[in-house]
Write a structure and sequence with these properties.
This is Bh protein. It comes from Bacillus mesophilum. The chain contains two helices and four strands. The chain is of the alpha+beta class and 112 residues long. The longest helix is centred in the C-terminal third of the chain and has 36 residues. The protein binds zinc ion. The site of zinc ion has 8 residues, from loops.
């Protein structure tokens, strides 16, 4: 889950002028646009839980094929060699992923 924020000039229909807008993206999708001058906010209809679900689902679905490919090789030594690496890199990746997700969630909740 990635949360990106940028500041850019956009036309504000309330200020009737080009003003600095604070734009935030969730997983590359437009999430929120706020005029820095009048604080008018446009929130996109983006469900955080749905985004998270889609992301987790993608991960879960991509896993069995990756595992079975290693089994398909029928090269037991290769698999055993690959195993410790998997054990070491997975928790790190998982922690990184969870931290990113937590950050994104905090930012969205803080904006509401
Ligand atoms: Zn404005």
């Amino acid at each position: 889950m990635k949360f990106t924020e940028i500041d850019t000039y956009l036309f504000c229909s309330k200020c009737l002028d080009e003003t600095i807008h604070h734009v935030s993206y969730l997983n590359g999708k437009l999430h929120r646009v706020q005029c820095e001058k009048c604080k008018r906010t446009n929130e996109m209809d983006l469900d955080f839980k749905r985004e998270l679900y889609k992301e987790v689902y993608k991960r879960v679905v991509s896993k069995p094929s990756r595992m079975s490919e290693e089994y398909k090789n029928d090269d037991r030594i290769k698999l055993i060699e690959a195993l410790p690496r998997r054990v070491f890199t997975k928790p790190y990746r998982l922690v990184k992923y969870l931290n990113e997700t937590k950050e994104a969630y905090k930012k969205i909740k803080g904006n509401n």
